[in-house]
């Protein structure tokens, strides 16, 4: 599963961003200071870091070089209230991959994060090959072998696997199960996605299922469909 660090000292905003990322299918570590960040980096190299510019124990700008040295393959998205162009330029030149200014909606954060991860070649290299077997109706992982899916899990996963990285509408997923949208409420679909995410998490694969606001769900990497 893709891991994101959120480095933000405002506890409410930190939790808001974390909740949006978790709902989208990411694993999230919250850091409220640079000290928290250094401790977390000692144990984990995240796929991306969302970094505030002003933190209680230092500047996010000053931390960029150290972050790059400690975790060179992590995408860095700066998220700050410093809106002046000189700060945006400084952040990008000092090592940030993206610079967003507050106030910002979480959907914009997710969209920029998804774009950064999609453009980063090492994310693809970290993915362990995963296949979807039509005959067995299961996922096949080189690490743990067959991961059985229920008929409904198999059906919706196969629909998403046919168009990886692109959202599949909730209506299309519900139709694939043989229901009309009014017959199958969103809670049932969310529960189904939750079960699939748990199975993906258990096999420690970078592939994840993401919720795309207003558009549906998508899988983060291509999956080979075999007979």
TrEMBL record:
Domain Response regulatory, chain residue ranges per copy: 3-117
SUPFAM superfamilies, A to Z: C-terminal effector domain of the bipartite response regulators, CheY-like
Modification type 4-aspartylphosphate: residues: 52
Domain OmpR/PhoB-type residue range list: 122-221
GO CC annotation: cytosol; protein-DNA complex
InterPro entries tied to this protein: CheY-like_superfamily, OmpR/PhoB-type_DNA-bd, Sig_transdc_resp-reg_C-effctor, Sig_transdc_resp-reg_receiver, WalR-like, WH-like_DNA-bd_sf
Molecular-function annotations in GO: phosphorelay response regulator activity; transcription cis-regulatory region binding
DNA-binding region ranges: 122-221
CDD domains associated with the record: REC_OmpR, trans_reg_C
Entry-linked Pfam families: Response_reg, Trans_reg_C
PROSITE patterns assigned to the protein according to its UniProt record, in alphabetical order: OMPR_PHOB (PS51755), RESPONSE_REGULATORY (PS50110)
Biological processes, Gene Ontology terms: regulation of DNA-templated transcription
Keywords: DNA-binding, Phosphoprotein, Transcription, Transcription regulation, Two-component regulatory system
Protein name as it appears in the record: DNA-binding response regulator
